[in-house]
TrEMBL record:
UniProt-annotated location(s): Periplasm
Organism: Amycolatopsis australiensis
Signal peptide start and end residues: none
Entry keyword Signal: yes
Descriptive protein name: Heparinase II/III N-terminus
Biased composition (Low complexity): 621-631
Heparinase II/III-like C-terminal domain: residues covered: 402-693
Transmembrane segments: none
Length: 704
């Protein structure tokens, strides 16, 4: 639980209007404790008219359908995975159980009394909330729609009835957070749509008093307690999207027209506020760009299908977001790994192996049309034809689109340098969004470098939010990114797991990104004022140069960190690091490399010997038989190159000789040398740390 100090810091980041608004919410919550609001009478013969057009299911590719059915069959067998934890109880899940800690959240407590931030009391709340977004039910419903098998539909019905019975309005943890209610409503809309044609669908939805009660209370909650002020980030988008979709598809209450109008107006305003003019999400967290875009598209097509379209300005923002995504992905369609990421999706009607980013770009291509500079996008997902079929009457957005691929998104401070297979992201933007910058990391001037989609200089990721403060602090710290730390402290000051009380201010000084030839980026930040950290990054062919300068107060103790991707094996020889990793599959022969793995030797090392002048990692994969159990970095080799049967890529990282360099892998006290491929998951990777006096430091990365 948060202490008094946190509440004071949080209050200091609110304006007067937000304080008043939160006081009003507190009054409503107090009233609901003793007297639940009463829903109106349900219409006598409600009809669901938002069905899919005939024949649209046949437009999904065979590969996409196969992936979907594979995931659906795992669910039918009772297996599901959330944030790295595999559950085998999904035939009849306990909606309050956290399988990670074994704890069970209180189910019969007034929602706003549930201490959901306390892992000791409720367990990991993300593990509890995620299944109750009911996105596994949209997958099962889609499997029914594609196959006609009633078993999928029966499982959906069993889960919904179980959840409704266990979660009466405003009782337990599933009524605490608006984002959960909004995404759940969106899932219910699509579940009903995809079950159309099943004999029991009307009894489950339109003719079911339990559903009527749940539906009204979800929408009334969202209309009454909408996020605002310093919390009006991706949460308010999810709240508006869910309210709008439900009020369109299930528009049977006397409040439905008002809810539609409210949600339409708010979605238009909040999407604009949450998005830079360049199209990037203002939270500067790449995964949340995907979440907000998914939510916005799902809500907009729902309104169009109901004949109550959203504003053209809403579509313009979604267009800009789609073009921005196309502009920043690497050649494997992977976006940056900037800021927080919690694997949140807005709408899932695809198998787990479907590439999320390719799917979003495929949807954008159908809705808005592709530009000449867009990367090639495989159209092999289920969601795209379904969404597009509902948007047939949508007027195309009229915003001006970039004539060439943007390299520098000035307002977001993101610059992408490209040369052949080399992709580099340079971070020179604002610290985060709104006064609390909830999902920001202390990563000013950090770089992220990939070669043919493989993380070489990696952003380590996020790993966790609640319950493990040491790990939360590490993954969003300055030392946890490819940038310079001074005096052993972060550039920005944290006031809690989703609160920053001081934000470093960054300014991009120069950007040169010609279509041919060398490119350059230079920026500085004041996070260590009066000292200033200035960084220059130059990319010329397959050579990347990084120059770090500390101005104003030189000589301070500094640590310069470079985090290597989990696929990279490292031989550190003084200030020279020899890097080696398996080549990725040829395009079209494998998925994107977000999860590329090698067998890591956590806590062990390998002593490679080589003749003078030979490749220091030449010809041999890591052999644990030569490792010393006492020394995790014998011979300064970190990681192992598993026999992948693929070619091997190499690079040389020439580190500043002014610093003393050490390699770290899988350390826990304190954490150092970790990579999180997704929320709740982490694995050892190698971090190179140079320690010494701040000054003028030059790093060279040469790809072979």
């Amino acid at each position: 639980m948060m202490g008094p100090g946190w509440y004071l810091r949080r209050l200091s980041r609110m304006g007067p209007a937000e304080v008043v608004g939160r006081a009003r919410h507190a009054v409503v919550q107090r009233q609901w404790r003793t007297a639940l609001p009463t829903p109106p009478d349900w219409p006598s013969h409600p009809r669901f008219t938002a069905a899919l057009p005939a024949g649209v299911l046949g437009k999904a590719s065979g590969e996409a359908v196969s992936r979907l059915l594979a995931t659906a069959d795992e669910l039918m067998a009772g297996r599901a995975e959330y944030f790295g934890v595999v559950r085998t109880d999904f035939e009849a899940p306990d909606w309050f159980l956290d399988p990670k800690t074994g704890r069970r959240a209180p189910s019969d407590v007034y929602a706003f009394d549930v201490p959901y931030r306390s892992e000791d009391t409720v367990g990991d709340i993300k593990q509890i909330w995620e299944p109750s977004r009911h996105q596994h039910l949209t997958v099962l419903a889609a499997a029914f729609a594609l196959t006609g098998s009633p078993d999928y539909a029966a499982r959906v019905a069993a889960h919904l009835r179980s959840w409704w019975a266990a979660n009466p309005p405003l009782r337990g943890p599933h009524w605490v957070s608006g984002i959960e209610l909004g995404i759940r409503l969106l899932s219910w809309v699509w579940t009903r749509r995809l079950l159309d044609g099943w004999p029991g669908v009307s009894e489950l939805f339109e003719d079911n008093p339990e559903f009527q009660l749940q539906l009204w209370h979800h929408q009334n909650w969202l209309s009454t307690l909408r996020s605002h002020g310093s919390s009006a980030n991706n949460h308010v988008i999810a709240e508006d999207a869910g309210l709008l979709a439900a009020a369109c598809a299930f528009g049977w209450f006397r409040e439905s027209a008002r809810w539609r109008a409210e949600a339409t107006r708010s979605l238009d305003v909040q999407l604009a506020r949450n998005t830079f003019a360049s199209g990037l999400n203002a939270e500067l967290a790449s995964e949340y760009h995907g979440l907000v875009l998914e939510l916005g598209l799902a809500a907009a097509v729902e309104a169009d299908a109901a004949g109550t379209p959203v504003q053209p300005s809403t579509w313009d923002v979604l267009l800009r977001m789609t073009d921005a995504l196309a502009s920043i992905v690497d050649n494997r369609l992977r976006p940056p790994r900037q800021g927080d990421a919690d694997d949140g999706f807005g709408l899932i009607v695809d198998g787990a192996a479907t590439d999320r980013w390719a799917s979003l770009l495929a949807t954008g291509e159908v809705l808005f049309g592709r530009l000449d500079w867009w990367p090639a996008v495989p159209g092999d997902d289920v969601r795209t034809p379904l969404l597009a079929s509902l948007a047939s009457r949508t007027p195309r957005a009229s915003g001006v689109r970039p004539a060439r691929r943007p390299a520098h998104l000035r307002d977001a401070g993101m610059t992408i340098l490209r040369s052949g297979r080399v992709w580099a992201r340079c971070d020179g933007g604002p610290h985060g969004f709104l006064s609390i910058a909830a999902h920001a990391h202390a990563d000013a001037l950090s770089v992220e470098v990939r070669h043919d989609g493989v993380d070489v200089l990696a952003d380590p990721g996020t790993f966790c939010y609640h319950g493990e403060p040491q790990w939360r602090s590490y993954f969003r710290s300055t030392l946890g990114h490819n940038t310079l730390e001074l005096a052993g402290r972060d550039q920005s000051v944290s006031g809690g797991p989703f609160l920053w009380t001081r934000h470093a201010v960054t300014k991009v000084l120069d950007v040169r990104t010609p279509e041919k030839g060398p490119s350059q980026w230079r920026a500085a930040h004041d996070g260590y004022a009066p000292a200033v950290h200035r960084r220059t990054v130059e990319l010329d062919g397959e050579v990347l140069k990084i120059i770090d300068e500390v101005l104003g107060e030189t000589g301070q103790a500094a640590r310069l960190a470079f985090h290597l991707g989990p696929a990279v094996t490292v031989l550190l020889d003084g200030n020279v690091a020899h890097l080696r990793w398996p080549a990725p599959p040829a395009a079209g022969q494998g998925k994107s490399l977000a999860g590329t793995r090698t067998e890591s030797l956590a806590g062990r090392g390998t002593d490679f010997s080589s003749a003078p002048g030979a490749d220091p990692l030449g010809g041999r994969a890591a052999d644990s038989s030569s490792a010393s159990e006492a020394d995790p970095l014998v011979g300064h080799v970190s990681g192992s190159l598993a026999d992948s049967g693929r070619a091997v890529r190499t690079a040389v990282l020439e580190l500043p000789p002014e610093l003393s360099w050490t390699a770290h892998r899988g350390e826990t006290d304190p954490p150092l040398g970790w990579y999180s491929a997704g929320f709740g998951r982490k694995e050892p990777s190698t971090t190179l740390v140079g320690t010494g006096a701040a000054g003028h430091l030059t790093t060279l990365l040469r790809f072979s």
